Amino acid sequence: MLKLSRLCSDNMILQRDKEASIWGRSIAGAKIDAILIGTGLSEEYTTNCDENGRFIIKMKPHAAGGCYSLKVRSGDELVEIHNVTFGDVWLCSGQSNMELPINRVYDKYKDIIDRAECDEIRTFKVIEHTNYHEEQEELDSGEWVSVEAKTIMNFSATAYFFACKYRELTGVPVGLINLSLGGSPITSWMSKDMISGYERLNNILTTYSDDEYMAQVLKANEENMLSWHSNIDSIDEGLKNSWYSEYPVTDAHDIEVPCMFRDTELKGFIGSLWLYRKFELTKEQASKDYRLWLGTMVDSDTTYVNGTVVGKTEYQYPPRKYDVSASILHEGKNSIVIRLKVESGLGRITPGKERMLFNDTEYIDVNGKWKYIVGGECEAIKPTDFTSWKPTGLYNGMTAPCHNYSVAGMIWYQGESNTHDSPENYTELTERMVEGYRKVWKDESLVYIYAQLPNFVIDVDEEIEWPSMREAQRQCLKVRGTQMATLFDVGEDNDLHPLDKMSVGNRLALAAAHELGHYKGEYTGPVVESAVWQNGFVKVSLTHADGLCVRDIGKGSEIRDFKLEYGDGAVVDTDVTIDGNCLVIKLKSIRQLAKPVKVRYCYSNTYTGGLLYNGAGLPMAPFMEGIK
């Protein structure tokens, strides 16, 4: 009958310098004894179960370190917890860029990941789970695991790199509780109390807490998906005639890869498409194994080499990285065939991605001219209703059960899903969430360290949405106990999921260690202190700007991303010079000598010139600041 929370288990890291809790269930009214044992240490605790059989033991604060065991007894029952230590514990939450696992960035960090082994970094991953009725008391999934190369491949890359840098800065063990889900808006991680007063959100919650309605939605989602794919598969001439092995080259059209279909004859195309390219191999080349990288595509693909399936990806975001065995290759002409299914008329073979067939000695570029034939056309797939993204669902099912577990704070990477959903409310929602978490954890010292959205272009329809969200995120710095990591230089214009998660983790760690007082060095890029109009120019004063400089990170070294905004909405270009820890911004047009009302920096989806950094190599965040 004695059962402890999943969080209270082997390999757990307990929060240092705070009361740590151990909780679970036994028989109503039963006496619970616990003993914490370590070198030269033996601490005993006693409590009783309540009328529902629940109990919680509060242990006194401990310094970081140690290797302890914990014995919990109820009558004749005994649970032993091994390899317990104290350190800093972090909730790691948000959407896909927090969830994105190590295996997606493995090729970028192969040497680092292959050497990963650290018992002082431990991970706890909670699997997606929603509850629209109540806040759950216990988690349905998760276990503490010490970091090894084989144990972290499905864990958050952002969180892992954060832990590595944070441990380097502080020297303490780090525990990571991963609560994240791709596509989730901020409100899915907020409680009912936290969204109080938002009528629209509460109406959505009421709708999705109806079990009958939820069952109908889930059934419709499944039927819509199965119906669309079944239909296009049934009418696809390529499947009927085995184009993967006998491609009708003479009937095909030319297409340049990569491309956005909107810029080709395939604009608006929905259905299945068969793409073909040949490549030549010598006998020696054909005796080796290869990897085939095809970048990202919209939406799903099945890829064949010489008629054999080498890989399949069910949605648009993962980079296609497929293994090609020498057993299916031969001397002379070989073929790559891609069956690409486009669900909503927004097809593409993403520009700017690597496409190649390669191994340690050979490299074959597979960009350039391909052939294509339409396999079948159909109507767009019906939109999926993502039920896990609704208000309170993820909070109730994944976050609420963690309330008793003491933590140092939260690292947060989210915002993409709120760019088209009232970004002007994001700052208020963030404040409600942060203060709400402090309330339910009964800990006003919890810090909130978050990532500002990076540069991104390819799937963004409105130029204003992402800049507005970044500014709303910048304003979240007004919430006490918060710090922001700027990422505008480490995104990828053509990918919602940039691979440079080490820079993200490092910058979050600098901010976190500073906010907790464990790191005295520079932790943020230049920050705007004031913008003042002075006789025909704007002077922007900065803090954290020692060593202020401009860097060319791929688009030149000219400072081109400052704009001045006027009261009538006009936005004009500027000339910018660096003057110590200040910026002098002059108008390019003599006609515009009136005082502007705002200065903008990188208030766009991406940058067009050099970016500003301080001497610590940290970038200045995009901003829109009023002019005095």
Describe this structure in words.
With 628 residues, the chain is of the alpha+beta class. The chain has 3 domains: 86-195 and 391-515, SGNH hydrolase (Rossmann fold, 3-Layer(aba) Sandwich); 235-377, Sandwich (Jelly Rolls); 527-626, Immunoglobulin-like, CATH 2.60.40. It contains 11 helices and 36 strands. Helix 4 (157-170) crosses helix 11.
Q: Can you lay out the helices and strands and say which pair or pack?
A:
Layout: E1 3-4, E2 13-15, E3 20-25, E4 31-38, E5 41-48, E6 54-59, E7 65-74, E8 77-94, H1 96-99, H2 102-105, H3 110-114, E9 117-125, E10 144-148, H4 157-170, E11 174-180, H5 199-208, H6 211-235, H7 237-240, E12 253-257, E13 259-260, E14 271-281, E15 290-295, E16 297-298, E17 300-305, E18 308-313, E19 320-324, E20 332-342, E21 348-349, E22 356-358, E23 363-365, E24 368-377, H8 393-399, E25 409-413, H9 426-440, E26 447-451, H10 465-475, E27 482-485, H11 501-515, E28 527-534, E29 537-543, E30 549-551, E31 562-565, E32 571-579, E33 582-587, E34 598-601, E35 611-613, E36 623-626
